[in-house]
Design brief:
- This protein has 298 residues and is mainly alpha-helical.
- Helix content is 77%, strand content 1%.
- It is globular.
């Protein structure tokens, strides 16, 4: 279980890294440190103004990178499942690519495509680490009963669509924060995500009311989407209220940061829901084949 606990710790630190990154963007501190990899030629610059947010983000990113290296090596040496070991290497490659994108945002003065790619890859990396935390858990590796994924559309398909919609919505949100385009695409995406989350959670409640794991996933999705909608409205109000100020004000910063990181948690919750569906549900045809020997037994 030590490996599982370390994966959970890495996921928690990755979440804090997302918080640090959101603080950089919300405080307009992306270019507070104009050089890379050092900060004003030092590993310990004066922590004042925007330097505090940008340099703290770099330090946290370095720490998460070290954790990911340890996790990948640990998985490679002790994990018997080849696909989990490979996923650890993918996570390592993602964190390296994320560091490169972070450097490019500074070197090329925050170009919108690179900044958006940096934000989106961070979400992918977070989802990967969350998946590794689940795959190394005792629950995932225990003998769980499989049930038929009945109903149309299948719950597994609904969960995958929800993950895809949330990721696109996070991409639209990143483009809006980095001034790639306006708020309208993000609002349209929010409507699609809300519909899919409630559709997925409702299907899980109707079809598998007594399943504990799916019940927890359903409640998690409901809580996160409700909180995210409230934070989205509050963050937009704070932007309108702060429009006359020459720099970001605290209420706008913290509401925007909360909205951003709860969006990451919503994606992680949808990823967990999808993986739980993959683990305990199977297509109706496979369930029927698996049940035939039992029916034929005396």
């Amino acid at each position: 279980m030590a490996l599982h606990r370390f994966a959970v710790f890495t996921a928690a630190c990755t979440f804090l890294l997302l918080v640090a990154g959101a603080l950089v963007t919300s405080n307009d501190a992306g270019l507070a440190v104009p050089d890379w990899p050092l900060s004003y030629g030092s590993v310990a610059p004066p922590m004042v103004g925007g330097i505090l947010y940008e340099h703290s983000h770099r330090v946290m990113a370095t720490f998460v990178g070290i954790l990911t290296i340890i996790l990948a090596v640990w998985l490679w040496r002790s994990e018997p499942r080849r696909w989990v070991r490979r996923l650890g290497l993918i996570a390592l490659g993602a964190v390296i690519a994320q560091g490169v994108l972070g450097a490019l945002t500074v070197v090329f003065f925050l170009p919108v495509p690179i900044s958006v790619a940096h934000a989106c890859l961070g979400q992918i990396f977070f989802g990967t680490i969350v998946g590794l935390a689940l795959f190394t858990s005792q629950w995932w590796q225990s003998a769980l009963p499989r049930v038929a994924d009945a109903g149309s559309p299948r719950l597994r398909s609904l969960a995958v669509w929800t993950v895809a919609a949330i990721f696109v919505q996070l991409m639209l949100g990143a483009a809006f924060r980095h001034k790639g385009f306006g708020i309208v695409p993000h609002l349209a995406g929010a409507a699609v995500v809300t519909l899919l989350v409630f559709w997925t959670a409702g299907a899980a409640r109707r079809r598998y009311r007594n399943d504990g794991a799916l019940g927890r996933c359903r409640r998690l999705l409901h809580a996160l989407i409700g909180l995210q909608l409230l934070l989205g409205g509050a963050a937009w109000w704070s932007r309108l209220a702060a429009g006359a100020f020459p720099q970001p004000i605290p209420v706008m910063v913290w509401l925007t940061v909360a909205h951003t990181v709860v969006g990451a948690l919503t994606l992680a919750g949808a990823v967990l829901t999808t993986l739980v569906c993959v683990r305990i549900l199977q297509p109706v045809e496979q369930a029927a084949l698996a049940a035939r020997p039992e029916q034929a037994a005396p």
